[in-house]
Amino acid sequence: MPFTVVGLNYKKADAHIRGLFSLDQSSKINLIKAAKAIGPFRDALDSAPGFGDKKTYQMDFGNSQEALREVAADIDEGADIVMVKPGMAYLDIVSQVVQNFNVPVAAYQVSGEYAMIKAAAEKGWLDHDQIVLESLMAFKRAGTKIIATYFAKDAVKLLG
């Protein structure tokens, strides 16, 4: 089911999600976007920006204090959950948010992170199943309550 259909269904159910499904401004999830690891997803959908600079809306990836200020502001505006995206490179931010705020923290293992693991496993540099479980456990150890990942089906089979 396309994200737009899923998003519309959530909207009809009065779910409060912003960003992940590009709903309206009254929605209540903050997405921290700070890296370029979503490239493979955009390439696959042919949706990469044709011009401009993402620096106007992405945070400085070296400034964890900015991330914490953004989370605080979003919680003040009514966010019920915050999401860190991409997740793997920002587990330190996930951990800081968990330690400093009383909201559930979600993390998104973006397509670039997925692609890196897949490519390394295909080359024989990593054991696919082991690194999938290890990467997901790292999210859990950092304190996430929700993990969005392209490895969901793999994880179900491996943990089954």
CATH-wise, what's the superfamily? Answer: Aldolase class I
The whole-angstrom Rg is 16 Å
Number of domains: 1
What's the end-to-end separation, in Å?
24 Å
Secondary-structure class: alpha/beta
3D shape: elongated
CATH architectural type: Alpha-Beta Barrel
Order of helices and strands: HEHHEHEHHEH
Provide the low-confidence segments as ranges.
Answer: 16-42
CATH class: Alpha Beta
For the biggest β-sheet, the strand order reads 1-2-3-4
CATH topology: TIM Barrel
Main beta-sheet strand count, sense and barrel state: 4 strands, parallel
Average of per-residue pLDDT values: 75
As a percent range, the share of helical residues equals: 40-55%
What would you note in describing this structure?
It contains 7 helices and 4 strands. It is elongated and about 45 Å long. Helix 4 (91-100) links the parallel strand 2 (81-85) and strand 3 (105-109). The chain has a 4-stranded parallel β-sheet. The longest helix has 15 residues, at 128-142. It has 160 residues and is an alpha/beta fold. It has a single domain, classed as Aldolase class I (TIM Barrel, Alpha-Beta Barrel), CATH 3.20.20. Helix content is 47%, strand content 12%.
Descriptive labels:
single chain, 160 residues, alpha/beta, TIM Barrel, 4-stranded parallel β-sheet, 7 helices, 47% helix
